[in-house]
Amino acid sequence: MTGFDYSSTASRPAYRDLPGDVRRGVAEALGGPPAEVRLAGGGFTPGFAATVRRGGASLFVKAAPESSAFAYPAYVQEASLLAALPAGLPIPRLLSTQHLGADGPGEAWVLLVIEHIAGTLPGGPWTQGQAEAVHAALVDFDGKSRRIPAHLATGSMTDGLTDDEAVMGVFGRCATGGRSPRFLPALGRRHWLELQGLVDRAPSLLTGSAMVHNDLRPDNIILERSSGRALVCDWTFLTRGPAWADWVALLPYLHHDGLDADAWIGASPLSAGVPAEAIDSWLAVLAAYMVVSGLAADVPTSPRLRAHNRFTAGIVVDWLSERREWTV
């Protein structure tokens, strides 16, 4: 299976197309109009996101209009979370938030001004050094997450998954004669039923009270060029679950690029000693969600989203096939 370029997935508006008050807000934060605007290529929301530069100053800014059904509430939620998080976490700092246009005749916008981290996304392909940096950041976050106000993490990471009939039954439907997705490895009925069994056991296996990001992908991570440290971005879905969940959800990408993901499970303090059935259940639920999403209609404002869903479903099932010692 070929790889997936997470650095080039977004469809974003140009800076010149932003309303005047949003551009004025950016200029105010930067000390004047930007001399350079570099749109963020990664991500799946249609909101504005870019690095802006003027002289020696650089900022990362995000903006979305109230009419954007996903980007606006996502950015508002992220701003609220980032503002409440304690210092010292492996997360770029929120510098300011502005709510613009709400009292005028134009549309309301939200503008986030975030610390700029000069760096790159991991992957393309993943290296052992990148894996070590990201793992260190997740261990650091887990250790410091006890300082995060408890009310910021609501619900469970399985909300919207284990209560979704389409997700919970997708592998059973494949086993009983439903169309097997072409983007998955060729599996026999026994394998589909085994996957379905793992999904069925998720409500009892995937319990935990740790705070988790719950949307960790390569494009939500920055590897700082100067230090090599990893920082985790896009904190919209902070919730609770097992402390190992974010790390395990990222491991299929490492496995796809040739790293020993199973060795990482045993070596990490996040996942060492976790029952294999619990890890496989989480992988099966992730795969089920990605299969259902990958079969859905394309999203015009996020043209690469379904390709990401299909790619991720494929690499998760591929790794599960090895872990379960299936012959496919």
State the assembly state of the protein chains: single chain
- CATH topology grouping of the largest domain: Aminoglycoside 3'-phosphotransferase, Chain: A, domain 2
Taking pLDDT < 50 over at least 5 consecutive residues as the criterion, the unreliable ranges are: none
Under the CATH scheme, which class of the largest domain? Alpha Beta
Number of helices: 11
Mean pLDDT metric: 95
Domain module tally? 2
Provide the gyration radius in Å: 20 Å
Tell me, briefly, the overall form. Answer: globular
Helix content: 25-40%
CATH architecture of the largest domain: Alpha-Beta Complex
Strand order of the largest sheet: 1-2-3-5-4
What about the largest sheet?
5 strands, antiparallel
Distance between the termini: 14 Å
Helix/strand class: alpha+beta
Percentage of residues in strands: 5-15%
How many runs of DSSP E, i.e. beta strands?
10
Q: From N to C, what is the helix and strand string?
A: HEEEHEEEHHHHHEEEEHHHH
